[in-house]
Design goal:
The complex is a heterotetramer, with 2 copies of chain A (203 residues) and 2 copies of chain B (333 residues). Helices cover 66% and strands 3% of the residues of chain A. Chain A is an all-alpha fold and 203 residues long. Chain A has a two-stranded antiparallel ribbon. In chain A, helix 1 (7-22) packs across helix 9 (188-199), helix 2 packs across helix 3 and helix 3 (40-54) crosses helix 4. Chain B is an alpha/beta fold and 333 residues long. Chain B contains 8 helices and 15 strands. In chain B, strands 7, 8, 9, 10, 11, 12 and 13 form a 7-stranded mixed beta sheet that branches. The termini of chain B are far apart. Classes of the chains: A mainly alpha (203), B alpha/beta (333). The interface between B and C is large, with 55 and 55 residues. The structure holds adenosine-5'-diphosphate (2 copies) and magnesium ion (4 copies). Residues 32, 36-37, 39-40, 79 of chain A line the site of one magnesium ion.
Chain lengths: 203, 333, 333, 203
C-alpha cells in the first residue's frame, strides 16, 4: 500500500464502480421514479460503464485521467446526476492537473473541490438533501483518516447521511416540486452515491 | 402510444435525418445530434448556439438559419443534450468573435451549457456568454425570474440576437440584445391533453375528460390551476390579464404577439384566440406589430396553446423585422 | 369536446376574423365567409376560386394569395359552402378573363359549384370552367377516379394553376394546367385518432387504443383496413407501394413529395416518414424535387398523416417553383 | 279554384310547407342519422323557413319567384338535399320564366324538369333510392289528374314510393357506403319529400 494514488488506481476504481453499480440499476431507477423521472439507475450505470470503457487508456497525468472520466460520463448521461458527477470529476481534474501521483491525505480536499463544483453548477446548498450532502459527510469522515480505513469510513458516512436526511424534505432537483412527499424518502442521488462508494475497491 | 415512429431510441436521430433531407439548403448535420447552418459559419460573426431536449420542433434545431442561430445541440426527447455536444456546437459556431449560448432556463440545460462553456474555454480558447430565456410567468413569481422556465418567448430572443449578430455586432452587443429581447417577453400556456415521450411510452400527465391546466409547462410541469374547460375568450382573458399584470403595458406600447400551438391545437383555434388577444390589447391602446400565429414551440402532439407578448422598443422592432430564413420562419428582406 | 373555442356556431366566423386580423396584407373578407386576396383582382387575369368545408386549414382559404388562388367560399366545418357563396367568390375573382373553379371532389361541393356556375352565367355572364381534384387512391379503384375524394394533392393543383394564371394565360390554358397537375398526383392517408366537429361535439369516428385506419378520408370516411399500429417505415412502405401501383414511377422520374400532418401528428414524425419515402423513391431511381413536409391540409386536431406524390414534367416543375405567397406557403422569386 | 296557379299560390304553399316540416325536424334528423350525418331535419326545416321568409316578397313573375325560393333555400342549407331542392326550384324557375300564371295541368312537367335537374346535378339515376324516385312517383300520379285531387294523389304517391323502395339498397348519397344496411330503412330524402308534400295546402 503506497501513500499515494496514481492514474492506474483511478482506472481500477472506475472499473470496480462500474461493476458494482450495474447491480443497483433497478433499485436506483425505482427510487428516482418515486418523485422523479426514474432514470437515475440508467444514468449511474451507463455513466460509470462509459468511464470504465475509457479507463484502460487513462493517461498517467491524473488530471487528464479525471478529465477523460468526466467527458466519458457526461457523454452518455446528461441528466442532473450525470452533470453533477461530471462536474465533480472536472473539479478533481483541475485540482490534480499535471501530477502523476496524489497523496491519499489529499482526498478530502478533492472531495471538497467536487462538492464546491457541484454547488456552483447546480446552484444548490448543503442541507438541500442532495448528493452534495453525501459528499460533505464523506469528506468530514475522511479528514485525518489513514487511507487503509478510508473506504470503510466513506461507505459508513454515505449510509449515515442517507439516514440523517431521510426525514427531511428535498429542496432541489425534481423532487423539490413534491417537497412534502419527499419526507421519509431517500434522495435518489444520495442513495446512488452510497452505492458508488460501496463499490469502490479496498485499495 | 399512438405515434408514427420506428424504435423509440431512434426517434430523435430519424427526425434529424428527415429534417436535413428535406432542407439541405438550410441545415447540416456535421455530427450526430448537432445541427448547423448548411452555409457554414461566417468568419468574424458572433456565433449563437442553442440546445435542449427534442420534441419541440421548430424549437430548437429548426431556428438554425440565416438571421437566426448558428448551431444547435440536440438532446433526447425532453432531455438536455450532453455538455460535450454543446461544446461541439460552440466550436462549430466559432467564427472568431465569440459565441453566445442562448437557451431556455431549465436546470439540466443550464448546468450542461455551463460545463460546455468551461470545456471550450479550457480546450479551445473560445470566449462565450450566456443568456437564459425565462418567459413563462406561471413557473415562478415576478421577482424570481431566474426560476422561470423558458418557453415560446425564446423565439423572440433568437430573432433579435440572430439579426444583431448578422449585422456583425460584437459578442457583448449581441448578448445585450438577446437579454433585452428575453427580458421583454412574457408567456403563459394552457394545456388540454398530454403528449407521449417515445421512450417512456406513456402520457406526460393526465387530465380528466373536460379538464385543462392553466400554466402547465411544456414538459407537463405543474401549473396554476386545473379546472373545467372554459370558452376561448375567457381563457385568453385570463392569460392576457396574467401577462399584463407581470409586464404592464400602456397606451401606444408596441408589442408582437405569438399565439402558439403546443402541437395538436389547430390553426383554427389559434385564430379564434388571436381575435380576442387583439380586442384586449386594442382596449388598452397597445399596437400589435408583426403577430405570429402558428406552431413555433411545441410539445409533439400535446393539445394546448401559449400566448407570448413581446414588448418592442425601436431597436427590438427593427431586429424583429430584419430578414431571416429557416424552414419555419422567413422574414423577407 | 376538448377544443379552444367559444360558441360552436361561431367557430368558422371567428377563425376567419382571426385569419384576416393576423394577415391583413394577404387576405380580405369582403363579405361573410368569403376570402379574397387583400390586393384585389388583377384585371385580365384568369380568376381561380376554390371552396369547401372549414376545419382543414391551410386548405382552403389559406391558399388565397399571389401565385395561388383568388377567392375562396368558406363552408361550415366539413360542409359545403352554399352555392351563392361560391357564386360570390366567382364574381370577386372575375377579372374579365374567366374563372376556374378548382376544388376537391366531394358530392356537395361539386353540386353547389355547378349551381354557382349556372348562377353567374345566368346573372353575370361570367365564363367559367371546373377542375375537381381527386387524388385519394383509397377512395375508389383506379378506373373510377371521378369517384375519388380530393385531399392534400389539391395543393399542387392550386400551385400550378395559380402560377399559370399569374403568367396571364387564358382560361383554357389555366384549366388545362390545373387538370394536368390534379391528374399527376396521388395521395393516401393513415388516421390514428379522430377530430371533433364543433357543432357535433363528438369524434368523427372511433378507433381502438392501438388501432389505426389506412386510407381513411379527412372527414372520417371509411378506408382500406383497420388494424394495429405498425412501425413508421412499414406504414410508409405500404403507402408508397399503393401510390406507385396506382401511378407507376420509373427511373429518372421527377416527383415532388408532400408528407402532410392531418393536424396533431408532429413535425418530428413527418420527418421520420419523409426519411423512408426518400429511401423508397431513391431505390427506384426517382428524383425528389422540392419536398413539402408540414401541415398543408388538415382535419383540425386529427392524428395521422398523408403522403402525396406529384409527378412533374418540365412544365409542372417550372410552375411548382414559380414564386407564390400566402400565409402558409411562400416560394421566393 | 282557378285553373292556374300564381306567384301568390306559391307563397302560400311555401309558408304551409315551412310550418308543416318544422314538426318533422327531429324525425328527419333521426332518419338521416341512421346511416348519414343526421342533418336532414335541420336542412329541410331551415331551408323552407328561409323560403317562407322571402315568400311575402315573391314577384308576380313565377319564374322569378321560383328563383328567389331557390336562392333562399340553398343559402341556409348546402347539404345534398338542400342542393337538390334548390336545383329543382331553379329548374322550375327556368320552366316558368316570364309568366304570371301557370295552368295546373303543367305541374307534372314542372316535376319532370325538377327531376331532370336533380339527376344532372347529382349524377344519379332513377332507382337509386333517392328523393328523385319520389318525384317520379308523384309525377306519374299527377299526370291527367284534376287539380282538386292533386295534393292527395301526390301525398299517396310519395308514401307509396317510400314503401316500394324500403326493401331496396341505397345507391347514392352517404348511405351508399352502407348499401347493405340501408335495406329495410327509408331513404331520409324520400321521407323528407313525403313530409313536404303532406304539408302542402289543399289549394
Ligand atoms: N441542482 C442540483 N444540485 C445538486 N444535486 C442535484 C441537483 N439536482 C439534482 N441533484 C441530484 O441528482 C439527483 C437526481 O438525478 P437525476 O435522476 O439524474 O435527475 P433528473 O432526471 O431530474 O435530471 C437528485 O436526487 C439529487 O441528489
Ligand atoms: N347525388 C344525389 N342525387 C339525388 N339525391 C341525393 C343525392 N345525394 C343525396 N341525395 C338525397 O339527399 C338525401 C340526404 O340529404 P342530406 O342529409 O342533405 O345529405 P348530406 O348530409 O349527406 O349532404 C338522401 O337521402 C337522398 O335522398
Ligand atoms: Mg431522474
Ligand atoms: Mg432525467
Ligand atoms: Mg345528411
Ligand atoms: Mg350533411
Amino acid at each position: 500500500m503506497s501513500a499515494e494514488f496514481t492514474s492506474a488506481d483511478l482506472a481500477k476504481a472506475a472499473m470496480a464502480i462500474a461493476a458494482g453499480v450495474k447491480g443497483a440499476t433497478d433499485e436506483l431507477n425505482r427510487q428516482d421514479g418515486l418523485l422523479g423521472d426514474g432514470d437515475l439507475g440508467i444514468t449511474v450505470s451507463a455513466g460509470w460503464q462509459a468511464v470504465a470503457d475509457v479507463a484502460p487508456q487513462f493517461p498517467a497525468d491524473i488530471g487528464k485521467a479525471f478529465l477523460a472520466a468526466a467527458k466519458a460520463f457526461q457523454q452518455v448521461s446528461s441528466s442532473s446526476f450525470g452533470t453533477m458527477v461530471a462536474s465533480a470529476l472536472m473539479a478533481a481534474a483541475r485540482h490534480t492537473n499535471g501530477r502523476t501521483a496524489v497523496p491519499w491525505p489529499e482526498v478530502p480536499e478533492l472531495v471538497a473541490a467536487a462538492r464546491d463544483a457541484m454547488m456552483s453548477r447546480g446552484k444548490g446548498a448543503l442541507g438541500d438533501k442532495t448528493v452534495m450532502d453525501s459528499l460533505e459527510a464523506v469528506r468530514v469522515a475522511l479528514v485525518g483518516k489513514d487511507h487503509a480505513y478510508m473506504r470503510l469510513a466513506a461507505a459508513d458516512a454515505a449510509e449515515a447521511a442517507l439516514a440523517e436526511f431521510r426525514s427531511r424534505p428535498n429542496k432541489l432537483g425534481r423532487a423539490r416540486m413534491f417537497a412534502d412527499r419527499s419526507i421519509g424518502i431517500d434522495d435518489p442521488g444520495m442513495l446512488a452515491f452510497a452505492r458508488i462508494v460501496a463499490s469502490m475497491p479496498d485499495e | 402510444m399512438k405515434k408514427i415512429l420506428n424504435r423509440p431510441v431512434d426517434y430523435v436521430d430519424e427526425t434529424l435525418d428527415g429534417l436535413i433531407a428535406v432542407h439541405p439548403d438550410i441545415y447540416a448535420l456535421p455530427e450526430r445530434r448537432l445541427i448547423t447552418r448548411a452555409a457554414g459559419m461566417r468568419k468574424g460573426k458572433v456565433g449563437i448556439v442553442t440546445g435542449g431536449g427534442s420534441g419541440h420542433l421548430p424549437v430548437f434545431a429548426g431556428y438554425v438559419g440565416s438571421g437566426l442561430l448558428d448551431a444547435c445541440a440536440v438532446g433526447e426527447v425532453f432531455a438536455s443534450p450532453p455538455a460535450d455536444k454543446m461544446a461541439s456546437a460552440m466550436r462549430h459556431a466559432n467564427g472568431g468573435a465569440g459565441v453566445l449560448r442562448l437557451y431556455g432556463n431549465y436546470g439540466g440545460d443550464g448546468m450542461n451549457f455551463d460545463m460546455a462553456g468551461e470545456m471550450v474555454e479550457m480546450e479551445d480558447d473560445i470566449v462565450s456568454s450566456t443568456v437564459r430565456v425565462s418567459d413563462d410567468v406561471a413557473s415562478a413569481p415576478p421577482g424570481e425570474s431566474e426560476k422561470r422556465r423558458g418557453v415560446a418567448g425564446m423565439v423572440y430572443a433568437f430573432k433579435a440576437a440572430g439579426a444583431r449578430a448578422e449585422e456583425m455586432a460584437d459578442l457583448d452587443e449581441v448578448t445585450r440584445v438577446a437579454r433585452k429581447a428575453a427580458d421583454s417577453c412574457r408567456s403563459l400556456g394552457v394545456a388540454l391533453t398530454p403528449c407521449v415521450v417515445p421512450q417512456a411510452g406513456k402520457p406526460t400527465f393526465t387530465l380528466a375528460d373536460n379538464e385543462i391546466e392553466m400554466g402547465m409547462g411544456i414538459h407537463g410541469e405543474p401549473g396554476i390551476w386545473r379546472a373545467e374547460l372554459r370558452p376561448a375568450d375567457a381563457l385568453v382573458d385570463e392569460m392576457i390579464d396574467r401577462l399584463i399584470t407581470d409586464m404592464p403595458l400602456s397606451r401606444r406600447d408596441r408589442v408582437s404577439v405569438l399565439v402558439n400551438s403546443l402541437g395538436a391545437t389547430p390553426l383554427e383555434e389559434l385564430y379564434i384566440m388571436f381575435r380576442r388577444v387583439r380586442t384586449r390589447l386594442g382596449d388598452i391602446g397597445v399596437d400589435i406589430v408583426m403577430p405570429l400565429v402558428g406552431r413555433y414551440a411545441t410539445s409533439m402532439e400535446m393539445t394546448g396553446a401559449t400566448i407570448t407578448l413581446s414588448r418592442l422598443d425601436g431597436e427590438l422592432e427593427r431586429l424583429l423585422k430584419a430578414p431571416c430564413h429557416c424552414a419555419f420562419w422567413t422574414v423577407a428582406a
